[in-house]
Amino acid sequence: MPLQTNGFYEFADFRLDLSEKVLRHGDKRISLTPKVFDTLKVLVENAGSLLEKEELMHAIWPDRFVDEGNLAFNVKVLRKVLGDDANDPKFIETIPRRGYRFIASTRRIETETPSTDKLAQDAGLFPGTRAIAVGPVGKRSFWFLFLMSALLLCVFLIVGLRSLSWKTVTPVLSAPFSSQKLSNNGKVPDAVISPDGKKVAYVNGTGTEKESVWIRRLETGDNIEIIPPSDDIYGGFAFSPDGNYLYFARKPRGFDGQLDIYCMSLLGGIPERIVSETQGWISVSPDGSKISFVRCYYREDENCSLWIADSANGSNERKLALRASPSRIGDNRFSPDGRSIAFASGQSANRSNDFGVAEVDLATGQERELSHEKFFNIRSMAWLPGEDGLLITASRFPNKSFRIWELRFGASEATPLTNESETYANLSLSTDGAALTATLVNEDFRLRTFDAKTPLVGRVLAGAESTSFAPDGRILFSSLMSGSEEIWSMSSDGSSQKQLTNDLADKSAPFADRNNNSIYFASNRSGSVEVWRMNSDGSDPSQLTSGHGGFPLFVSLDNEWVYYQHGTDRTLWRVSTKNGEEKQVLNKPSNYFAISPNGAQVAYLQKQGDQRLVTIASLSDGQPTATFSLVDRRSQLCNIVWMPDGKDLAYITTDAETGNNVLWKQSLGPAAPRQIATIGNDVISGALSLAVSPDEKTLAVIDGGWRYDTVLIHGLRLH
């Protein structure tokens, strides 16, 4: 299957330019990633022929092993840019369980590459002859060419040796994969390795447990507690270049604000606060004089910003970069030469691949994109010693796992270094690139049902992410049981489980209409999270929203409108089931909306100062009709639903200190909320994690948590 490099193909209104590696639609240039372009090129070059999946993957990724999900994702992107429909294809036909065929008529147009003889003719020479200069001019030309050749040879040698050193300077990338667990209790969410690779600083404790800070000496395996257990919550860690000081971010448990940065001498001393109000992502310059950090005030014009200050006492603060809402800034690292800072930025609210890596020059303040690669989210990064790339932990649609990637700035694409079934968080690389620490994360959320009258002990039915009850009493839920997040249904006792969707995209927030004819859900299969509809058996899926989309909440009594939470600004919208018209209903951002069974009112969470309020408003005009305060101002609202009779609200709060989840019932009258039960202290997974059965006899709750362990990695080469 030869890959042509000259000329172009024409099909329909498109032109595939092989020399420039671009796709054009009329006068419009369509941006494609290198591997998506290669996928289209292989398909077009073999138009009319069935290409088996393995054959395609070998042609597109000749030197790497990849799974079928990468190929399916590339084809999905191509269908989107070509305006193709998988069910009625005009360009790319899917042959079930085998491969793909390009079915459009194509026309190959060659372009002429000048040959040696053609170049000779242009120079006034006959084919096969050489130009030989004689006399004094020829001698000067000879020495000139000789010196130029010698100079070029030196340049090539220098570049080659430097390139070779780049490839060998990071031993962790050249050695076979090997890792060693430094913790096994699931309670080490953050760790950092010292620049000399001899010790690791880490926090021990998660959830509502008291947290402490420890140092592990890798040569001996000794663990030393340097900060005793307290009610403080810790964020990021960073060593000074000499390894004698530890920087970390923390805040008091229950404090509704950002973290402060502290510095502590490992030779003896107490933590001293140097910077206030940060997000925990910190980095120390190679000379130890500066510290970088992120602040997020969540304003429209400045959601998050990147700063530096003097590492000694936090003085001379300077803002380097900012991002407007909904984009944010995440992890940041000083470059090895100390002249710039690389940082991750983007947004993942609508589940699209929007996160990238940029660099800001400390002298000029100029920003530049370090790579064109985009991800759903980037959690952590570490500079490679050669300064030509980064290691990052990132996830990319359609896979939810945060893998470790190698991001070389001159390469056409990022290289995944760990398996797609594993999730890693924080990264830290020793200066010589020989040892790497990473946080290995395991998720465990499950769907439990309770008796509504005596909700004391729940019954686990399945692993799940979101849930609702159908009018006939079935439970609809999204789950990772099959490897990707799919929509499932089951009886209220957990029997008769049935998978309703099957593709690599994320699906969540399923609910059924009153007649049990349709199921509405959120999916990012088109590139960002949108509202979709399908039949109750999972057939005939169709996309309702387009653009920013969001998460469906309710369908009107006449089935003409689907109400949903906006994908990026978290306000309340609705979309017509007939013509796709999208319209904002309530311009009040909130993490939780619940619409009354009769479709007349909406309940949502608001904050006024340090108060958390549940507000009820009319859907017709958005005007508030009632407001209720949470009993405990320290508590966090986890979810809110209407009872099926429409007379009461039910919601869950989490106590900030104990972590206990409390179920409340709030009447619409003046009465105070009534505590129903405490239902454990596991993490409630967020929106759509609470549901009430139509007969009000059963509650469904999704809770669970994460296990965090630190691993020491000595090699990342998988193949």
Note down, in words, how this protein is organized.
- The protein is mainly beta and 719 residues long.
- The chain has 4 domains: 8-109, Arc Repressor Mutant, subunit A (Orthogonal Bundle); 184-384, TolB, C-terminal domain (Neuraminidase); 453-588, TolB, C-terminal domain (Neuraminidase); 590-696, Neuraminidase (6 Propeller).
- It is built from 6 helices and 55 strands.
- The strands form 13 sheets. Strands 9, 30, 31, 32, 53, 54 and 55 form a 7-stranded antiparallel sheet that branches. The chain has a 5-stranded antiparallel sheet with strand order 4-3-2-1-8, with helices on one face.
- Strand 51 (661-667) and strand 52 (674-678) form a beta hairpin.
- Helix 1 crosses helix 3 (68-82).
- The radius of gyration is 29 Å and the shape is globular.
- It starts with 7 loop residues before the first strand and ends with a strand.
- 40% of the residues are buried.
- Mean pLDDT is 86; it is low at 112-146 and 151-168.
What's the short version?
By secondary structure, this protein is mainly beta.
Number of helices: 6
What fold name stands as the CATH topology of the largest domain?
A: Neuraminidase
Please identify the top-level CATH class of the largest domain: Mainly Beta
How far apart the termini lie comes to: 24 Å
CATH architecture of the largest domain: 6 Propeller
Keywords:
4 domains, single chain, Neuraminidase, 719 residues, globular, mainly beta, five-stranded antiparallel beta sheet, Arc Repressor Mutant, subunit A, seven-stranded antiparallel beta sheet
